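Fold this complex.
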Amino acid sequence: MPPTLMAERAAAPAAGTPILSVRGLKTYFRADDGVVRAVDGVSFDVRAGRTLGIVGESGCGKSITARSILGIVDRPGKIEAGEVWLTPGGGTGAPIDLAKLASDSAEMRAIRGKEIALVFQEPMSSFSHYYTVGNQIMEAIRLHSDATKQQAHARAVELLRLVGVPKPERRVDEYPFQLSGGLRQRVMIAMALACDPHVLIADEPTTALDVTTQAQILDLMRELQAKRALALILITHDMGVIAEMADDVVVMYLGRVVERGPVDAIFHDPKHPYTQALLRSIPSIMATPRTKLATISGSIPHPLNRPTGCPFHPRCPDFKPGVCDKAEPATTVIDDRREVACFLYGGGA
Amino acid sequence: MNVLEVVNLRKYFPIRKGLLRRIAGQVRAVDGVSFHIKKGETLALVGESGCGKTTVSRCILRALPPSEGEIRFAVDGKVVDLAKLPKRALRPYRRHIQMVFQDPFSSLNPRMVIADIIGEPLLINGMRSGEERRKRVKELLDMVQLPAAYMNRFPHAFSGGQRQRVGIARALALHPSLIVADEPVSALDVSVQAQILNLLLDLQDRLGLTYLFVAHDLSVVKHVSDRVAVMYVGRMVEIAGTADIFARPRHPYTEALLSAVPKPDPRLKSERIILERDVADPANPPPGCHFHPRCRYAVERCKVDTPALQEVEPNRWVSCHRAHELMLRGVQ
Amino acid sequence: MIARLFGRTSRADSASAEERFAVASQLQLTWWRFRRHKLALASGVIVILFYLVAAFADFLAVNDPQDTDSRRSFAPPQVISLFDDDGSFRPYVTVIRARRDPRTFRMVFDQSSKVYLTMFTPGYNYTLFGLFETNIHLLGLKDPQPGDGLYLLGTDRLGRDLWSRMMVATRVSLTIGLAGVIISLFLGILLGGISAIYGGVVDMAIQRTIEIIRSMPTIPLWMGLAAALPSDWSVMQIYFAITVIIALLAWTDLARVVRGKFLSLREEDFVTAAELAGAGQLRIIFRHMLPSFLSHIIAATSLALPAMIISETSLSFLGLGLRPPAISWGILLQDAQNIEALALAPWLLMAAVPVIVIILAFNFLGDGLRDAADPYG
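Structure:
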């Protein structure tokens, strides 16, 4: 057990060290009469001390991507193809392909929580109502270490202090329903950090929160990341949160990565028509009052009614008949941080 | 001309405890709120969860009976106080205030076709002829840019955005003089939000509608509203024109709220004002200004004196003791 | 959704499938979803078959169910042989002759001559649906000699034909359930609805009553109520009294379902919208809320029916419900109560089979209906 949590991580990996590499990940849900390609060929890298933002609207597969990495996809979902390479110990261990591990195997369980931890959108439903927050954090600690009860308790208090819970000695004995939404989310993060993971996946961590509370939590995550060289995967539908938090961005639409790149490039030089349209259509606090927004026509298709070819083509302003509706565009690599899947930039086979 | 004037509105919910359900306290959900809405404008009512904005809108619609105060509503050349009317006397005025709901799934009856959903208010208010109703429904569908052929479809066949259009058509059916839109786009996908916001703006321009737009998302509010009213723990903290309030807020809470909104541009990593602690509990609010425990400009007086909402410059109301001396930061 | 409901569709007709889906009412959607639930569908067929048996009980019976004959007490079931000795399809049974063993005084049954079966033959007189007087039965013996009889499932102590008795018992047991459910539906919807609409003291009173009724131990209560029935009542009177007793205890579940659904529907935005449009209370209830209930009520009913059937069966089995000469599943099982009868005539337990089958079928059907009616809940 590290001597103290408040200090920086003893052997923190250098920022930028690749920790997690996802390659060609495909997770499908096979129902009686149709296949939902929830995640359909997703690739990205996550680095120590950096934030990867995954952004997209409902049904784009961003949450399933996170769940696939941890091997906790609900049935009938199944990883069909692809690799998820984790370098454990913050980039010091031998890489493991998580996609090959059975979801209930001992190896996978050792990785969940210890190497990769997850923070959910709705903190209330991810806590048990019958145990104090301290008990729940202690359980997470003792699952992955041989700490005694006293040690685990002391560490739980320390973790609560770390995430900015006021009076942690008292809060540790409270039940989740006694906490406000913002505090619950802090406790959730404390629990995720209990075993000192190197990768933190935050799935819509602030969507259920008010904007001033959201600011607190985002601030906390940034601070923790800097202290502990956390590799952070931030999943959200909110372009504003992405702009504030992410270093690299993956834009998803109907299970496919349409574009990937550094945050500045995504916002100031978007390549894919979907990214361009999305950026134009989001309401901005910087806008002139009472101005119309550019819109994307139509709505997101039902996943079982997926369009042929490029899934975005029915809504795309740059739609080329006979091309976009015939084949799915391949990914065009622009440089090692940037790629786009669109026929405008090659995208042929 | 004012369509609506809300004066000193209060709504308290009793807290009952024990076997005999004795009243042990009160949640002051709305604690003396006043504002007005002019004909043809959009007033946005903003604030965080629990601030009482939804309770205010429910009181105006009389889905909840107000505890105290006046809701003066101008209709047919006279002014009625909706707060005082008993339920039965309220009926003839109901049609003049309509609502657009947040949840596009719960707001449409799954067992009725679109024509019946939109036609229902017409039928209730005396349009007996089916032919006439169909004609009007067609007109309304056209207004919200849905094909008339969808009339015989059931709601389950529609996407969230389309359902919201149907909800708007239903609200328009009776030519209301005020439309209360309660978070009308917050349940929609980003790419669909813009369509609905534009539609609301369009309809306002074409039909001269008046909106009370209840929302928590300030970016959305900036796009649709003429004036903004900010609430905090049951009280109004600031009311001003949209451009003014965003550029130069006069209340510290408004300033913090604006600074907390993530801006969709990575080059603008602004210094956010991080508010300490949680929102006050409306069942047990702090004395004086409700915001003082979190306010970085608070002085001794704020802890004891409740600031009144005062007009600090024309059309700008602020409830802060230091409104005149503070120079607060907004967004461009 | 569309693809799920219609199975795989080709591109050409996917557009028309979409249109069909778009204009489909909730009832149609429910049916489409129900259709995909194979176990429930099969159970539905079984339930229908059982009610057909109930409707045509006398037609399916072979012998008069009340006809006793000590000479054929505890006769074992007969086996139908489908093919004659020469291999042609001529179903027959070997009829039996009973005689008393002079040393043990027990009845012994000797295999006797072959008798061929025939269909639509005259037998005892009955009235179909209480309208048509007839004596035609589905099965019978061809040219029977005096003393020949067809006992497919054997006979009981009094020599009554178990098969025929089971047919008639099915009618009694299934209709008592139906009548009971209709009464408890009425009470449940009425009281549940009143409870939800008026709230306050009324709600409180109804809810406490429900709790009291539910907390009573059922068997002593039944015993008390059944003991209160005058012993000189006719079979029909007892039958109706039992129905009412069961219904009086069974409405509580339905009332709770109705009240809960009512309260949750009242919070729905579409109900608020109707209120804002100026709709009156009655219109809101009947036009906007009731249709949403219907599928739930159907599902609740199909789950309440088996409880009714079990109640009747257990009451009668304990001797508290219907009494002979009435015939119901419970009464048939009463005969299988003592070990001696079971040792001599294990076929008497056959009466438990339809009870088990119909209860399971109703439960699967109810689950299927509930899932189909409320895919989100």
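Chain C has 14 helices and four strands.
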